[in-house]
Amino acid sequence: MNFDIDCLRSFLVIADTMNFSRAAETVGRSQSTISQQVAKLETQVGKALLTRRKGRVLELTSEGGKLVQYARKILQLNDEAYASMSDDVLTGFVRLGVPLDFFGRDFTTWLARSIRKFDEAQHARRVRSCLLQTGNRGKERHCGAA
Fold it and tell me: How far is CA 86 from the centre of its chain?
């Protein structure tokens, strides 16, 4: 039996947020797809991974907690292996040009949260509207919504 990498990734987001809707938004899938992915993992292990009530995640079961630990290791190795094989490594810096009144006081909170998400999903290659400028290649990339 093999675990599906996408299912594990979705499961980790659920474990971190305790929310199917936020997990769906984070991984770019529908909420029903996220539910199906968790059901698939639960079928594979033959045990419940989450305690739910009225569609809400209350907590991880003991088996869910165990799978979270393994899933983090599996995904880290998967992402490292993919990055080592990829010729399209993004290096350099990201330059944001945003008027302060657009974000207001929440800008630093948003920026800190975005940096954490980027660090966690650094190999996802999913970029929203931005201008990327790579320091070592001197090239610019304009990215639209992905």
Answer: 19
- Same domain membership, residue 98 and residue 116: yes
Are 38 and 55 found together in one domain? yes
36 closest CA partner among 18, 10, 64 = 10
- The domain in which residue 35 lies consists of 5-85
Distances (CA, A) of 86 to 2, 18, 42, 125, 145: 23, 32, 32, 11, 22
Res 71: pLDDT: 96
Residue-wise pLDDT for 96-130, tens only, equals 666 666 666 666 676 677 776 666 544 333 333 33
**Paired residues of 131 in beta bridges:** 142
Question: How many domains does the structure of the chain reveal?
Answer: 2
